[in-house]
Amino acid sequence: MASTIGINGSYGERKPSNALGVGVGNGERKLSNAELRKASTASALRKPSLSPIGTIGAGTSFQMMISLHNADTNDLIAFKQDGQRFGTSQRTLKLNSNVKYKCLIKTKPLVEFHHMHLGGSDLELVSETVIGGEYSAIWNTTGIEPTRKGARQDILLILSGPGVSLRKKIQTKFYNPGNGHAEWGHKLDSLIWQCDIDPTGTITVTDEQVL
């Protein structure tokens, strides 16, 4: 029998224990095989807790990627290079009226958003991961009239989360469903925005690229 040293320096016998740490000495009950199997199964199924991951705050920068595709066909939207013709952007996103689009948003490092507004509609923002930083939403363009020839239409994007908010105009041109002009141009995989957060939590887009 193995021995242990007590707090006062005296020696005593160590009581044997099973794999679950249940003593089997005098006055203690040994678990049955069924109880051991049940406890082992419960331990195996127990999920580890997720450690919270912090998001960046004021005075820092991050990258945001935004993509839009047809929610029914999964087709990417097209865009047109307009140069300096219009004031909001050098690029025009080409969209259809009366169509549902799926919006995907990803930030690096993680930025937490809870609300999204696009083109006059409040959208349900769904987190794609348990730690945040990736979101999706469905945007229905029903009610948005086609843009007149030679013009562009700015739509407002608003994203907000704990202590931060973004307001950004996006230059677009809307077409009737089935109008082939909406498909002409370069396919847009993602808009890539470099963003800064000021001490008030306001997010500003400092650079825009396309992928």
Keywords summarizing the entry:
single chain; 211 residues; mainly beta; 13-stranded mixed sheet; two-stranded antiparallel sheet; disordered N terminus; type 1 cannabinoid receptor binding; receptor; CB1 cannabinoid receptor-interacting protein 1; CNRIP1
Amino-to-carboxy terminus distance: 71 Å
Instruction: Please state roughly what percent of the residues sit in beta strands, choosing from under 5%, 5-15%, 15-25%, 25-35%, 35-45% or over 45%.
Output: 35-45%
User: Could you say which structural class the secondary elements and strand pairing correspond to?
Assistant: mainly beta
Oligomer: single chain
Count of helical regions? 1
What share of residues is helical?
Answer: under 10%
Low-confidence stretches: 1-26, 41-54
**Topology as H/E string?**
EEHEEEEEEEEEEEEE
Shape: globular
Residue-averaged pLDDT: 82
**Main beta sheet:** 13 strands, mixed
